[in-house]
Specification:
By secondary structure, the chain is an alpha+beta fold. Among the domains are: 78 residues; 88 residues. Helices cover 24% and strands 27% of the residues. It has 5 helices and 16 strands. It has a 7-stranded antiparallel sheet. A 4-stranded antiparallel sheet has the order 9-15-11-12, with no helix packed on it. Helix 1 packs across helix 3. The radius of gyration is 25 Å and the shape is elongated.
Amino acid sequence: MSTNTLLQLKSRFWRHLGLYATVTATGGSTSKFTVASLADLEPNRYQGWQLRVLTGASAGDLRVLGAGPNASGDLEPKRAFSSTGPVATDTAELWGNPIDGGDALTALFNDVLSIARPYVPTKLTIVTGQRVYDITTSVRDPKDVRRVSIRDIDSAAVVPYTERFQGCWRVYNQVNASTSAREIKIDLGQTLTAQTPATQELYIHSYKTLPAFTTDTSTVEAEYADWLAWEAVLRHAVDQWTQSKADKPHWERLANRAKAHVEEARQQFAPYVPLYIRPFEASR
């Protein structure tokens, strides 16, 4: 499975905002990242921006720029680079400054995860004679489960297969008497038989909770990367549009652009799926 790191998502965020550039050093030290071609820009064009070093002895450093570029193309961080600092051929990204690139941006992406919840099938291992399964690690709320199905497959476990959606199942919360931990269980209403070679597979279809990001190296499935980046842009643009007194037309345009991308992604990854009304519930 291909994944993207949180750092890659942050880069997408800044690119979508239009506040992003990549640069290659022609020199440097612990107090400067020199890019000779930037000497032609207006002084301090990137003052207040963030510089993320990608390669070399200081790779991983994120620094807010106090000044730069100057007449020599120097970008000067407010805090010294780690180790020996950048040297010629080291690369870096320049991020804008509407929001801090560290903890604040991580928090923004984690906030987005409350909305960005893809709808996916999750395979459960069939246990002979068992009708109740623990799905705590798959969903965070019983209402997240919308369908239950059994796939009839051939002995080689290849498609095409026949998928049969089940009617009489129930998902509920339960407190583990030993650990006092909250668990989520699904009662299938029937027992299944595990067969060898397998000719049946059991799936729950539910809204998946993506794990929170803890560091820039935290990962998420690559297919969701652009969706999460646009969700973050939308939330940030709306905040700026409603709270900022300056440049409202810019933030409104950006919010509308992000909204279009988000709506398309949500249709693909998190469509609304009506909860199947099971016969024994309808009769209550």
